[in-house]
Write a structure and sequence with these properties.
Pfam families: Lactamase_B, WHD_BLACT. This protein has 7 helices and 12 strands. The protein has about 290 residues and is an alpha+beta fold. α4 links the parallel β10 and β11. The chain is elongated. The chain binds zinc ion (ZN).
Length: about 290
């Protein structure tokens, strides 16, 4: 049973960014790759007719991308009032301080090392910039510092790398955590139900309609993969390489680095549950970086 392909999750549509709702536009960064799908989604949030907007995840530190972000703000006749990060991975954060300095604003993030200014981010915060209100949700799992943002007036939920527009998210080591990730998916499901969310806006790949189905598929996918890993472990696998070779046998070579991180996260979870013992350092990060390009 091991290694079978699980059902496809997410959108099969092409994605070039652009407007999703009247208050949300995506400026797609040109950093497509195995880890970044079509590129990083830089989200510009703005209530039409108001003077300030928020930029979520400025992406790479590249002038051409800043130009595109500023052009999108100019087109809507708004100024950037805050730069906010879903998490610190470089494909989301590298350009944050440069863009903030360029626009004379601040950077807010959970991890202080990415902040510019004295305001951080905490789950439960409500951030209001101009007329745009953002509710902050702590959604650790993909990384320890992963945050999601609800735009209640817009029925949309920005998920960073916790939910992607295509395929499934990676639990990145050393600070990813599968147990926390399961809890974060439940938190997102609650938000979707409570606030009648109709769009998930991911950190990479197309915007997703049908959020409840997507989130249920994510949970099912994780449970199915974990069941496979459990079975392989029960059959005697002792290293992450053993598990990778069997459970992720059909994974394309360029995604094997991501799959290995997920294997380590799953083995760490089973170890935590007392179902697996190993001397292998499951927290060690891999040589692969998060901005590998094809
Ligand atoms: Zn990430």
């Amino acid at each position: 049973m091991s290694g079978r392909p699980l059902p496809y999750i997410g959108s099969r549509d092409d994605w070039e960014g652009g407007s999703v709702t009247p208050s949300v536009v995506c400026v797609l960064a040109h950093n497509a790759g195995a880890w970044t799908l079509d590129g990083t989604n830089t989200w510009l949030l703005h209530v039409p007719g108001t003077s300030k907007c928020i930029v979520i995840d400025p992406g790479p530190d590249e002038q051409s991308h800043f130009k595109a972000i500023l052009a999108a703000a100019h087109l809507r006749d708004c100024e950037i009032g805050a730069v906010i990060l879903t998490h610190g991975h470089s494909d989301h954060s590298a350009g944050a301080k440069s863009l903030a300095e360029l626009t004379n604003t601040k950077v807010r993030a959970l991890d202080p090392k990415f902040q510019l200014g004295d305001e951080g981010l905490t789950g439960g915060d409500v951030i209001t910039i101009g007329e745009t209100e953002l509710q902050v949700l702590a959604t650790p799992g993909h990384s320890l510092d992963s945050m999601s943002f609800l735009l209640p007036h817009d029925g949309s939920l920005l998920t960073g790398d916790t939910v992607l527009g295509r395929g499934t998210a990676v639990i990145t080591m050393p600070d990813g955590d599968l147990g926390a990730y399961f809890e974060s998916l439940e938190r997102l499901k609650e938000q979707v139900a409570t606030h009648e969310v109709s769009w998930l806006l991911p950190g990479h790949g197309p915007a997703l309609s049908g959020p409840t189905d997507i989130l249920n598929s994510y949970v099912e996918h994780r449970i199915a993969r974990l069941a496979e890993v459990r079975e392989v472990v029960k059959a005697g696998a002792v290293t992450s390489t053993d598990v990778l070779d069997i459970v992720y046998a059909d994974t394309p070579e360029k995604l094997k680095g991501a799959a290995r991180q997920s294997v380590k996260a799953q083995l760490a979870y089973l170890k935590h549950l007392g179902e697996f013992t190993t001397d292998e350092d499951l927290t060690s990060p891999l040589a692969e970086t998060l901005d590998v390009k094809d």
